[in-house]
Amino acid sequence: MPRIVLIEPRPPNLHIFSQFYSPRLGCFILGTLMRERGWEAEVVIEEMERIDFDSVSRADLVGISTITSTAPRAYAIADRLRSLGVKVILGGPHVTFLTDEAMAHADFVIRGEGEKALAAFAEAWEKGGSLEGVPNLSYWQDGSVRHNPMQAHVEDLDSIPLPDFGLSRAFGCLSAGKTVIPVQTSRGCPFACSFCSVTGMFGRKYRFRSTASVINELRRYDPRRHFIFFYDDNFTADAGRSKQLLRAMIAAGFRFQWSAQVRADVTRDAEMVRLMKKSGCRIVFIGFESVNPQSLKAMKKGQTVAEIARAVKVLRRRRIRIHGMFVYGFDEDDWRTVRRTVRFAKRARLTSSQFMILTPLPGSEFYDRVCAQDRIRFRDWNLYDAHHVVFEPTRLEPLDLQRAQIYSHRKFYSLATSLRKLINFKWVDLAIAHYARKLNRRWLKINRTYLTVLSLLRPKRKHQHVTVDYREEAVLDQVS
């Protein structure tokens, strides 16, 4: 029986979810697929357990998943295993867009979605046949790299096996005493935000599993022990389909508590929000991105400041908690953007907030643009985690952009704010604020050298100081 080990490398830096890490689904889906083919399969989540290289080196094939910030660690693991004679195959967003870079550390790379490609690769491996017919595959042939053509995305998501989390000895992320179970019901995103690489990886066509398939998967879990996190990039992108699923969850009598990523425009549909609450939704993760109308327009977000304000009011009325995500560093952003963003987040009484730094991820429109403009200042992929400045902004110096994030977290998670949460008996919010302050202090300590280097960095061009039109922002004051 051939053996495959699939590895998810640990993230290089601290982030707001460091204590509540939940692994991505790719390794578990592919591991399940290979086990169904008759392979012995194991998944190693390095954030949760140490890699036993003696054991892993006895595998016939090792697959390593990558995102941009984990690419250096993935390459290091791959180099070590290849030195031991192990065949290594890399996959994930980063190596999809920078395949030639990845091939310096791997025997094979699967670009894009991996299910069809890995199944075809396994068949060729088992039969000792040619790799020419394996879609999405890059490999070495006669001393050079060959790239096979890309195949269309998987249309029938029901054909993908349900992930077996038992493939990992260390699986389990706890939330309020329950194990968080990731469930993916769709792929793709119909929007095209300039800073996002999701559409480059999974396409703009929205593909989703049947309601029956999702319900059958949910039946595997216990509401008393499991908390469901829907991993979709936009859980409510197709309103009709989402409401059908929510009604089915209610009809099945499920008592799950769950969360998902949604857009602010979800609150346009009152029935959708009602069904979300009734079916067990406890918290939503929303990419508000910015309270600067010009930034929203430039990033092609497809939402307005008014929609952001409305979303907060509607969701708070339904007592659905909100984790708001904001991004600084767009060409239209200045210090006033930063101050207005923090003010909004505090007045909106969001359960938690994440203030991130715009990061040029390979595969995004933004990455191509700043590369063409020679605005990239750091090529260390370890820093591409949305918490470090790696490019030169237009209206803020790099150090000021980093300071903007530090300032925002300090203001939002201040002791004064925590005191108000204590007085109002908001224990969950209070615990999150305490954790966030502790995390911020650790981040500053760990990143002293980086901050020193950033302070010495001199911009190559003169920064613009242009008055920004914030007239639309008046609606933000209505959320309190």
Tell me what the structure shows.
- By secondary structure, the chain is α/β, with parallel strands linked by helices.
- It is 37% helix and 16% strand.
- It has a seven-stranded mixed beta sheet, sandwiched between helices. Strands 8-9-12-13-14-15-16 form a seven-stranded mixed beta sheet.
- Strand 15, helix 13 and strand 16 form a beta-alpha-beta unit.
- Helix 13 packs parallel to helix 15 and helix 16 packs antiparallel against helix 17.
- The longest helix is centred in the last third of the chain and has 20 residues.
- The chain is globular, with a radius of gyration of 23 Å.
Within CATH, the superfamily of the largest domain carries the name tm_1862 like domain
Which overall shape is indicated by the principal axes computed on the Cα atoms?
Answer: globular
List low-confidence stretches: none
The biggest beta sheet reads: 7 strands, mixed
Q: Mind telling me the C-alpha Rg? A: 23 Å
- CATH level 1 class label of the largest domain: Alpha Beta
Could you give a quick summary of the protein structure above?
With 480 residues, the protein is an alpha/beta fold. The chain contains 18 helices and 16 strands.
List the helices and strands and how they pair.
Blueprint: E1 3-8, H1 26-36, E2 40-45, H2 53-56, E3 61-65, H3 71-83, E4 87-91, H4 93-97, H5 99-103, E5 108-110, H6 115-127, E6 137-141, E7 144-147, E8 174-175, E9 178-183, E10 186-187, H7 198-202, E11 207-208, H8 211-218, E12 226-230, H9 239-251, E13 258-262, H10 270-278, E14 281-289, H11 293-298, H12 305-317, E15 321-328, H13 335-347, E16 352-357, H14 365-372, H15 398-412, H16 415-423, H17 427-446, H18 448-456
Parallel strand pairs: 1-2, 1-3, 3-4, 4-5, 9-12, 12-13, 13-14, 14-15, 15-16
Antiparallel strand pairs: 5-6, 6-7, 8-9, 10-11
Helix pairs in contact: 1-6, 8-9, 9-10, 13-15, 15-17, 16-17
